[in-house]
Every structure is written in C-alpha cells, then in structure tokens.
Amino acid sequence: MKLKTILAAAALVAFAAGSASAEALKLGNEGNYPPFSITEADGSLVGLEPDLARALCERLGHGCDIQAMEFNALLPSLVNGRIDMIVSQLFPKPERLEATEFTDPVLTNPETWIVPVSGPDEITPDFLDGKSIGIIKGSWNLALVREYAPGATIKQYDNVSGIRLDLEAGRLDIGTVGRLAAAVNIIAAENGDNYKLIAPIESLVGNQAFSWAVQKGNTELRDRVNKELEGLFADCTYTNIRKKYFQVATSDREPESCH
Fold first, then answer.
1. Which of 57, 85, 105, 130 lies 20 to 30 angstroms, CA to CA, from 236?
2. Segment 199-226 mean pLDDT
3. Which fold has domain 2-107+210-258?
4. Residue 81 CB neighbours (<10 A)
5. CB-based contacts of 54: which residues, under 8 Å, 6+ apart?
C-alpha cells in the first residue's frame, strides 16, 4: 500500500508539473537590444522587456517561457503560433495591426538622429544627400527615412552598438535609433560626448508609442494583459523595473508619484 501511495503521489506531482508547463506563455523577444533586452552568456534574458514580461506573467498566473529570436522572426512566429505574445517594442504599422492584436502602449521611445557634436542642429534632406545612415533592422520608419533622404545610403544593423562602432570608425555619417537606446548606448557610453541627439521631423517620429502583441483574435489575452499592465504602472512596479536600466521615464503612463 505504501508503494502504491508513493507512486500515486509521484504521478500527481508529475501531472501538476506538466500542467504548469503547459500553462506557460511562450513569449518572443529580440534579446539583443540593450538595455531593453540582453542575452546573457548563459542564454538567459534580462533587460526592461524580459523583466517586465516576467512580472506580467506572474500577475496573469502563468509561467514565462521567453524565447530570443531575430526581430524579423517575431511577427511570423506569432502568426504561426510558435509564440503566444511578442514582448519587444512594436510600432503599430498597419500590416502589424491587421495580423495581430496590439496591447496598450508599453513604452515611449521616439526616434532621434545621432550626429557628431560638430554637425548641424537640424537634419535636412540636403544635409543627408550622399551621407551614410545607420538604422536598426526592422525599424518602423525605415521606408520613411529612405523617402526623406533619397540621396543617402542606408545601412541596417542588428543593434545600437553596431551603429556606435561604425560612427566611431567613420563608416557612418549619422545614425537614427530610439532616443532611449541612443542615450544609454551612445551618449552615456565611452566617447559619448562626441555626439549629440537631434529630434527628426514629426513624420519620422510617429506617435512615439510602442506596444506588445498577441495572436490575432485572442482578445481575451490582450484584455487581460492590458488590465495587468495598468496595474503594473499604477503600483510603481513598472517604474521600479525601469529604474534598473533607465534613469528617465520610458512611458508617459508612469505616475509622477513613482518617479
């Protein structure tokens, strides 16, 4: 009888473990956009987005299975059902809105130009003519930058560090990335005082709000995520996580009392 009891208990434990695993949300993250997302040497993910995603999963009552993948693979993976949710910042392009359910905004990260301190205070198409511009692969405004600067050469990079290195080496004349990433990875980095940030014209900035996304039609998960995100902002959990990586607010949804 004791043996049967032990075996039954073991079966229950195995069943419970399997159920918990089945309930884990499969999340996709770029994993290579510090300090929003960073892949450690052991393969683990840290950064604002993974940390916030884990806090969200906890409130949703789910486990968190965060997978790092190329940015361009995130949307196909969501559409094909390989993941349940994208937890990397997404700009609401029409094609993305059609293919997914966007959450409420998670952060605000308007685009900025990165130029040498000796450069102009306004970036015009004439200035960009013949110049080389570095931009992150998959950036929402890539087509707009090409249209704005038809005489420039556009070079795409996996991360901000690549843009910084090529700026320093003279292989790039100017970069354009999100303001938050530029401030942390370029201006606050070594030799950062050699550069300055310039806001582009409004059409290249967009509405500045970036969100996450769940599978098309899964409005139940989207609504639950929105509810818990609201709570994470309201009780300062979002701000406390953000302060580990940024000294300035990353969303206009952060209450003043949390700063």
1. 85
2. 89
3. D-Maltodextrin-Binding Protein; domain 2 (3.40.190)
4. 9
5. 64, 66
